[in-house]
Design brief:
Layout lengths: L13 E4 L6 H10 L9 E5 L5 H14 L4 E6 L2 H11 L3 E5 L8 E7 L8 H12 L15 E3 L3 H10 L10 E5 L8 H8 L3 E5 L18 H4 L6 E5 L6 E4 L5 E2 L1 H14 L7 E5 L4 H10 L2 E5 L3 H11 L4 E2 L5 E2 L8 H15 L3 H4 L8 E7 L10 H14 L3 E7 L5 E8 L2 H19 L1
Length: 441
């Protein structure tokens, strides 16, 4: 029998070093384990531009086919395309081979269900149970073996879907796109040019080993100096994140994008239930801006799955994270291209520049320090750490906040401090981080 304590899935699928952690054997076994006895629909498989992507995708195809499931190869496509096409063609799963914003040697496997959203905990646990079980997969032969096909127009279908959702022309608008040498390197320029925008593109020469390397959403500075009065859009490796750059070179993160969307919808009377969903990492300035606008904020744990769950329960149509994951009214998954297009539409419909729209909120200086520890166990009950957090909270008063939490994927304790001045935030974060290091390292 399988060991229920064994885990494959982390906070964002199965992820690790390609061909070391994420092996051909793992991918093949995972595909077999994902297949329940009632599954008859095909599985769609897309990937980003990593060198290891074709190898892992081939193993997934083989695993599904070996237990009688047909597969469709989508090729290189943004993760939003996988999510959308699952719903369009009625597939059992969409699978994205990507490690998102991680460097090229990493890779990962994300599953999306029939609704285009990432699988829930219970579904992932069921797959893990079958993966670790000693029960051999069902043997099939002849016509029972699954068949592979290719959807040659997958990117075009995805781009057409996004285009059909916009009500304003982008003619006269100018953009610089950084596609991180990743999954959006074809789709993003195609989308914006087809809507009449003037576009310059960087980060669109993937080699298989340069994805996210000094570019994309984790390195928005690649665009800050070259926008020159235009708007910049930075995507990450699988294009589920978006970080924007305003016309003056200022970084517009997920908090600011959420604030712009929430205000715009509220002004039009279209913000359902007058609520927006964010995480505990959202900037204090975001929360105060929403309070000033009379918009309710639901705060969740870190992770887009937590955001999605809260959006569904509250029927919210806007939610996301500071990192640039934004989930819109279909409540499926983050889609950086769709977010960028929606932000462009706000500009076009209001006639305002992004540098004007971002004035909806003032971001507080935020400092994040990661402390490597031997063990995360019991840190919350440590009296020295608790005392340090209390001292920091008292020092910040009403003009800041501190958040200390354990990383979900690494041996780290994260210390985040916001304050009216960056020097204050740095000093307080350092003092708490030093205590954490002394107690746990």
């Amino acid at each position: 029998m399988g060991d229920s304590s064994q885990k494959l899935f982390g906070t964002d699928g199965v992820r690790g070093r390609a061909n070391i952690d994420i092996t051909v054997d793992l991918a093949t076994r995972l595909a077999r384990a994902a297949t329940d006895k009632t599954a008859s629909e095909p599985v769609l498989i897309g990937r980003d531009t990593r060198r290891s992507g074709p190898m892992i995708a081939a193993a997934l195809h083989a695993g599904f086919n070996s237990v009688g499931v047909d597969t469709v190869d989508l090729g290189i496509i943004p993760v939003g395309g996988v999510s959308r096409l699952v719903r369009t063609v009625g597939a059992r799963y969409g699978v994205m081979v990507s490690a998102s914003h991680n460097p090229a040697p990493d890779n990962g496997i994300k599953f999306f269900g029939r609704d285009g959203a990432k699988l829930g905990d219970s579904e992932e646990r069921a797959i893990e149970h079958r993966y670790f079980s000693d029960t051999p997969p069902v043997a099939v032969a002849g016509a029972g073996v699954g068949f592979q096909t290719t959807m040659a127009d997958a990117v075009d279908r995805y781009v057409d879907y996004i285009k059909n959702g916009i009500a304003y022309s982008l003619r006269g608008l100018e953009f610089v796109l950084d596609t991180a040498h990743g999954a959006a390197f074809q789709a993003a320029p195609r989308l914006f040019r087809s809507l009449g925008a003037a576009v310059e593109v960087i980060g669109d020469q993937p080699t298989g080993m340069n994805i996210n390397d000094g570019c994309g959403a984790t390195h928005p500075e690649a665009l800050t100096g070259i926008v020159n009065g235009r708007v910049g859009f930075s995507f990450d490796g699988d294009a589920d994140r978006l970080i924007a750059i305003d016309e003056d070179g200022g970084v517009v993160d997920g908090d600011v994008i959420l604030a712009i969307f929430a205000k715009h919808l509220a002004d039009k009377g279209k913000l359902k239930n007058n609520v927006v969903v964010t995480t505990v990492m959202a900037n204090l300035g975001f929360k105060r801006a929403m309070a000033d606008l009379g918009i309710d904020v639901i705060e969740t744990d870190v992770g887009d799955r937590a955001v999605l769950e809260a959006m569904r329960s509250s029927k919210a149509i806007v939610g996301g994270e500071q990192s640039g994951h934004v989930i819109l009214e279909d409540r499926s998954t983050g889609d950086g291209l769709r977010t960028a297009l929606r932000l462009s539409e706000v500009m076009a419909s209001t006639g305002q520049r992004l540098v004007e729209l971002r004035a909806v909120m003032r971001s507080y200086p935020q400092v994040l320090m990661n402390v490597t520890v031997e063990s995360k166990s019991g840190w919350e009950a440590n009296p020295a750490i608790s005392a340090a957090i209390t001292r920091a909270t008292d020092a910040l008063g009403n003009d800041g906040r501190i958040l200390v939490r354990a990383s979900g994927t690494e041996p780290l304790i994260r210390v985040m401090v916001e304050a009216g001045r960056e020097t204050t935030a740095n000093e307080i974060a350092s003092s708490v981080a030093d205590v954490v290091a002394a107690e746990l390292s």
